[in-house]
Write a structure and sequence with these properties.
The protein is mainly alpha-helical and 398 residues long. The protein is 66% helix and 4% strand. The protein contains 18 helices and three strands.
């Protein structure tokens, strides 16, 4: 058999070269960040169990089908993974050229919410209902702001003209971010506004911009909060949420009901919980919006400190790996995009978990990957696709 390819005489001859290429050092499979991918998948699958537990007995919501929300959550997960794959295939650099189009479309969708075509769900007019499916444009605005600000701030730096963004460029990027924020304030969707402020701060810090912009933005935020309160821009239910946060004992059967029941559910879980599908607060339907905003209470009650800690660990793992991607990126654009995603996920996770524990006000922000909701699931998996693209398109080290 002299001169014969060694693979051809192997028992698995025709297949080994393919597997070798698949797991070669420079292959896409090896270059993916698997901890991020596995953590995001685990969170989404764990979320499907929690959503099912929270909705299987709620006939007024599940249309008589206990698997209604579970199947839709898994369907959203499948679509989200498909969007991630498409994002990796296109690449964050190719999407950089499409930022003006993506930004314009997301802003247009948000503006449509303010027209009669917008829908009010759970007291918030920030939805579009299309062919029976609800869409929340604010989730896609977060991605648009990250990509748009990264494009502006990194343009001259990546081209070699500057070592850091100048004041004019920073001002232009803040103007770009201000447009969707103003639209969200008109809805009003204060939770998404706070998430976007966190994103902007993360983006500015990662870009190397002058710290004066960061401190100025913080000061402007304080002034803006005072102005919003004085001008009575917030709806009554939002004011009540802040009042309940400031005074947890305020009207426990009224405005403080949600947070009071959430704390009872989490506190009753103990170390290992009551067991999946056996939580008395969850089964008794005492916690409102438990499949979306308060899904963490299901984990706290039924899986206990161990299960709730696992969710926090997986989120922490994902954030740690995303920080490494931001640090190792060879271009400022990739660094800013990854840092913006870190700021988004970190703030939203802290806010969602914090409001169930009573240490943050209720704002209606979902828990990334875990809460039920198509728009949120699609957006976070697109973000995972962006992180993976930054990772795989980084030049390989010697």
């Amino acid at each position: 058999m002299t001169g014969t390819n060694s693979f051809s005489v192997s028992r698995y001859g025709p297949e080994r070269p393919g597997w070798t290429r698949l797991f070669a050092r420079d292959s896409l499979t090896r270059r993916l960040d698997w901890p991020i991918l596995l953590a995001a998948t685990a969170l989404s699958l764990l979320g499907s169990l929690l959503v099912y537990s929270a909705t299987r007995n709620r006939t007024e919501l599940n249309q008589g089908d206990p698997y209604f929300f579970l199947l839709r959550h898994l369907m959203n997960l499948g679509i989200g993974i498909g969007l991630m794959i498409a994002t990796i295939w296109l690449g964050h650099r190719a999407l950089r050229n499409a930022v003006p189009i993506l930004y314009g479309l997301s802003v247009l969708l948000a503006l449509v919410v303010l027209t009669p075509l917008g829908a009010t769900i759970n007291g918030q007019r920030n939805w579009l209902v299309i062919a029976g499916f609800s869409l929340q444009p604010a989730e896609f605005l977060k991605i648009s702001i990250i990509l748009g600000m990264a494009m502006l701030l990194a343009a001259r730096v990546d081209a070699g003209d500057k070592s850091y963004p100048d004041h004019r460029t920073v001002f232009q990027s803040l103007c770009l971010a201000a447009v969707p924020i103003m639209i969200l304030l008109l809805m009003p969707d204060l939770g998404s506004v706070l998430a976007m402020v966190a994103i902007i701060l993360g983006v500015l810090l990662a870009s190397g911009s002058s710290n004066r912009w960061v401190f100025g933005l913080l000061a402007a935020g304080v002034v803006g909060c005072v102005a919003i309160w004085q001008l009575h821009i917030l709806d009554e239910y939002q004011i009540n949420r802040f009042a309940a946060f400031a005074n947890p004992d305020l009207d426990p059967s009224g405005v403080g009901y949600n947070t009071n029941q959430a704390r009872i559910a989490i506190g009753s879980g103990g170390l290992t919980g009551a067991g999946l599908f056996h939580g008395s607060q969850t089964t008794g339907q005492f916690v409102p919006e438990q499949q979306t905003d308060f899904v963490f209470t299901v984990a706290g009650e039924e899986l206990g400190f161990v299960g709730a800690g696992l969710i926090i660990f997986l989120l922490g793992l994902l954030l740690w790996r995303a920080c490494r991607i931001a640090r190792d990126s060879t271009e400022l654009y990739g660094t800013i995009v990854a840092a913006g995603i870190v700021a988004w996920f970190a703030f939203q996770s802290f806010e969602n978990i914090g409001m169930t524990l009573g240490i943050m006000p209720v704002t209606g922000l979902p828990l990334p990957f875990v809460s039920y909701g198509g728009s949120s699931m699609f957006a976070v998996w697109v973000a995972v696709g962006l992180l993976q693209s930054i990772k795989v398109q980084r030049p390989m080290s010697a």
